[in-house]
Specification:
242 residues, mainly alpha, Four Helix Bundle (Hemerythrin (Met), subunit A), 70% helix, 0% strand
């Protein structure tokens, strides 16, 4: 079963995830002028907040549902539904974040998808959509055989971790790109490390710390869900024993 280190990690994850969202929101509010939904640059400010909230923090939380000890016993379906619902919420926030940046680009006559950051980001979102659809079809609906689920489960876990890693990379490159765009005049160039750069870089470090801790909890073998045979009071559901 989970140890005190597991619960300490969960508390640390909650704190880091909250700080990631709060720091990103504060950056956009204090230095970038706040938020709107009118196609202006203030609409763009929703993009980093929604992407960090959805693709990093909520995605990370959803990935760890099966690490909770309460999910190790009894019917697995409620935890499957929670896992899928949290990921769907994360995807919804992600789509809203994309809408914000695309509308801003249209309003400002800026070309779409020309930077490495945008390529990484859109690739991550496409993989996320495919991952969620396949997970829903294979692991939540009852039609798939146990053999097929057992075959695809390691692939599902692997791509889940890859998508989180890509999300972190996209966020870091996005922070760097934004700073290069807004801190390029003579009074406060990025190279002089003004207070906004320090704060935004610190936000990026928080995102990296959160993501690495999620991957550690996700991949640490002592905290993985035990084999079904190890839990005598577990009730198989939908012929599911993975």
């Amino acid at each position: 079963m989970a140890s005190g280190r597991f619960y300490l990690s969960c508390m640390l994850l909650g704190s880091l995830g909250s700080l990631c969202i709060l720091f990103t929101t504060y950056w956009m509010q204090y230095w970038r002028g706040g938020f709107a939904w009118d196609g202006s640059v203030h609409m763009f400010n929703w993009h980093p907040v929604l992407m960090v909230s959805g693709m990093v923090v909520l995605y990370g939380a959803a990935s760890l549902v099966y690490r909770l000890p309460w999910s190790w016993v009894g019917p697995k379906l409620p935890w499957k539904v929670l896992h899928a619902a949290l990921h769907l919420l994360a995807f919804t926030l992600t789509v809203l974040g994309l809408v914000a940046v695309f509308r801003f680009h249209n309003h400002s006559k800026i070309t779409h998808l020309y930077s490495l950051h945008s390529w990484l980001g859109i690739t991550t979102v496409i993989l996320f959509a495919f991952q969620w659809s396949m997970g829903f079809a294979i692991f939540l609906l009852p039609w798939a055989s146990q053999w097929l689920r057992s075959l695809l489960k390691p692939v599902h876990v692997f791509f889940g971790a890859c998508i989180l890693a890509l999300s972190i990379t996209s966020v870091i490159s996005g922070i760097n790109e934004k700073l290069f765009f807004v801190l390029k005049n003579a009074t406060k160039p990025y190279s002089s490390l003004p207070s906004e750069a320090v704060f935004a870089n610190s936000t990026g470090l928080l995102v990296v710390a959160f993501g690495l801790l999620v991957l550690y909890v996700l991949l640490a073998s002592p905290w993985k869900r035990p084999d079904p045979g190890a839990l005598t009071d577990r009730q198989p559901l939908l012929q599911d024993r993975e």
